């Protein structure tokens, strides 16, 4: 059985294993820095599954920041029919890319 964890960051939950790359909401870290994520909601190892109430005590996920970038642009278009109202707006969301190095139980 592969060791995996479910973590929470930026108001979202992610299932991660060692070596996983994931894009999370922007974090105030520089490229190459290590970050420790301690909001582990579930931890699955060979010994069994630990479910947090709300988090698993002592569990943490260590990751390295590999990039600080922005997603592709999305277009927001609003229109009211028969009212001559049109509005176009673009948005690019910032994100931080993480590479999971290790998952530890205690």
Outline the structure in words:
With 106 residues, this protein is mainly β. It is 0% helix and 63% strand. It contains no helices and ten strands. It has strands at residues 4-9, 12-17, 21-25, 34-37, 40-45, 48-51, 60-70, 74-80, 85-91, 94-104. Strands 2-1-5-6 form a four-stranded antiparallel β-sheet, with no helix packed on it. A hairpin with a 2-residue loop joins strand 1 and strand 2. It is elongated. The chain starts with a strand and ends with a strand. The relative contact order is 0.29. The model has no long low-confidence stretch (mean pLDDT 95).
Q: Unreliable segments (pLDDT under 50, ≥5 consecutive)?
A: none
Largest sheet: 4 strands, antiparallel
Number of strands: 10
Q: What's the tally of helices?
A: 0
How far do the termini sit from each other? 19 Å
- What is the H/E string? EEEEEEEEEE
Helix content: under 10%
What proportion strand? over 45%
Average pLDDT figure = 95
